[in-house]
Design goal:
2 domains
Length: 499
């Protein structure tokens, strides 16, 4: 009998991929396509939705063909994606306007006008009003592109948009809905008062399902384009950070994970909605139904490193030599503290713990003796120290984590992991597969289709025998970074006026 396989679709900020998993959660094949958004003036970050329409069938076809060669039967698809982007669509699901991406800051003025509603919105949704989240993007469209708004049938996220492409249904799962500023964590449904507050019509919002539910079934057109069987279930596994947490074994309270990609997210679990008095920590629906995550977000991290590579490492290298390896080597040659250089990684505003969309990125304390290696190290330290400040805020709510499990593209750098351990002052654990998001989507789907009785069982099966790397903190470096953390807080406060 052929084995049963699941394909997960993982749509990130700068790329998307499909991953073919077997029944034990082992990766059989990966198909990836680069797909970055457009960064425009005025804080606009947007993307043509046709890119997802074109690329998703391509990666699915690659995995379907690999499954065929192995004699493996694909029995389900699971989706996970970046959250809080907005695509207005017509009745057929066709995009009417470029996707307004989660990093887009064109709505800063609208957020400022609504600032008196922060407390109301945070108390119900676990999120303060921010350009990151979906509701102000929808309100901006109504205010500035009313001709689009008037003919819109649904306001969709990227995951919802792709689900509609695959199945024809207009649904979103609660983990994604909880990133909109419109979803009530206590009723687990859209909040009519908040919908009215943002000036949106409820009929434009998708029906909500639980993460891990079947969103629909693969339609004939997509089956033909991908080579997969028509009618197989398509599961909405949850938002990308929720799935990353699940893929790292965050099944409830007591653990903390740090996922570092384009942005960075620190996540711990909660059995009930929890509120931060300072409204800096977000609370969202988790990928495990009936639970929640507490989340602290650094809006730009890997994207800063990508920018630095592009602008400061333009020289041609020998074939096979990676520019990232060169950056790491030069950063490693700089001492802890980067010869006094401090990076504030607020290239798209500041997220947790003191949300400030007007904050800007900055290199501080430059002098003629500074090298680009010092600046490179300051980027790694700046991201890790921003994360460390958020760890303090999360632990004030959820208790201390003895170790932190890390994932994401930047954790392929051993230097960055050592810096994380030194900045956090505790053990860093990194699974052999640094990308946990697709695995979390597989776990969600595997439970839904009955391969495993629980999330814990599916996680155990997928990670059995999998190696972990550990990075131990250096006490002397930790002392350096503790002093640096206080200095950078003072300098940020002086620049931003937050005293």
């Amino acid at each position: 009998m052929p084995g049963k396989a699941i394909i997960t679709i993982d749509i990130g900020t700068s790329s998307l991929r499909a991953v073919l998993f077997n029944e034990r959660g082992r990766v059989l094949a990966v198909s990836r396509r680069d797909n970055p958004p457009d960064y425009l003036d005025g804080g606009r970050v947007q993307q043509n939705s046709d890119t997802w329409r074109a690329l998703v069938p391509e990666v699915l076809k690659d995995c379907a063909e690999h499954a065929g060669r192995l004699g493996t039967k694909v029995t389900a698809l699971a989706l996970t994606a970046q959250r809080s982007s907005v695509i207005p669509v017509d009745a057929q699901g066709k995009a009417l306007y470029p996707a307004i991406m989660w990093q887009d800051t064109r709505t800063e003025g609208l957020c400022t006008r609504m600032a008196t509603s922060h407390s109301l919105v945070y108390g119900r949704t676990g999120l303060r009003i921010s350009p990151v989240f979906s509701a102000v993007k929808m309100a901006w469209l109504k205010e500035n592109e009313n001709h689009v708004y008037k003919v819109t049938r649904k306001m969709m996220g990227i995951q919802d948009f792709v689900i509609h492409e695959l199945t024809g249904t207009f649904v979103t799962d609660r983990s994604l809905a909880s990133r909109t500023n419109l979803f009530n964590l206590h009723t687990l449904d859209w909040d009519d008062e908040l919908v009215s507050l943002f000036g949106i019509e409820r009929k434009l919002l998708c029906d909500v399902i639980s993460p891990g539910d079947i969103a629909g079934y693969l339609n004939a057109a997509q089956a033909s384009a991908s080579g997969l069987p028509a009618g197989i279930p398509v599961i909405s596994a949850g938002g990308d950070q929720q799935c990353a947490a699940l893929g790292l074994g965050l099944l409830g309270p007591g653990r903390m994970i740090a996922n570092t990609g384009t942005g960075s997210y620190l996540i711990t679990g909660s059995l009930t909605p929890a509120a931060d008095p300072g409204m800096g920590i977000s609370c969202n629906v988790a990928a495990v139904p009936g639970t929640f995550i507490l989340e602290a977000g650094v809006l730009t991290s890997g994207s800063v490193y990508q920018w630095f590579r592009k602008e400061f490492y333009r020289e041609p290298l020998a074939e096979g030599v990676s520019k990232y390896a060169l950056i790491d080597a030069e950063a490693a040659a700089s001492s802890p503290g980067a010869n006094g250089v401090i990076l504030l990684p607020h290239f798209r505003g500041r997220g947790s713990p003191t949300w400030n969309p007007a904050a800007k990125g900055a290199f501080l304390n430059l002098n003629p003796g500074i090298t680009r290696g010092d600046m490179a190290r300051s980027i790694l330290e700046g991201i890790a120290l921003e994360m460390a400040e958020n760890i303090e805020a999360l632990e004030a709510m959820a208790g201390k984590a003895k170790s932190i499990e890390v994932s994401g593209g930047m954790t392929t750098s051993a230097l960055y992991n050592h810096i994380q351990a030194d900045c956090y002052g505790r053990t860093i654990e990194r699974p052999d597969d640094a990308e946990a998001t697709a695995l979390g989507a597989w776990i969600s789907c595997a439970v839904r289709v009955g391969l495993y009785a629980s999330f814990g069982k599916a996680y155990e099966a997928a990670t059995e025998g999998a190696p972990h790397e550990e990075f131990q903190p250096n006490p002397s470096n930790f002392a350096v970074y503790r002093a640096l953390a206080e200095k950078r807080k003072e300098q940020y406060a002086g620049l931003s006026g937050e005293h």
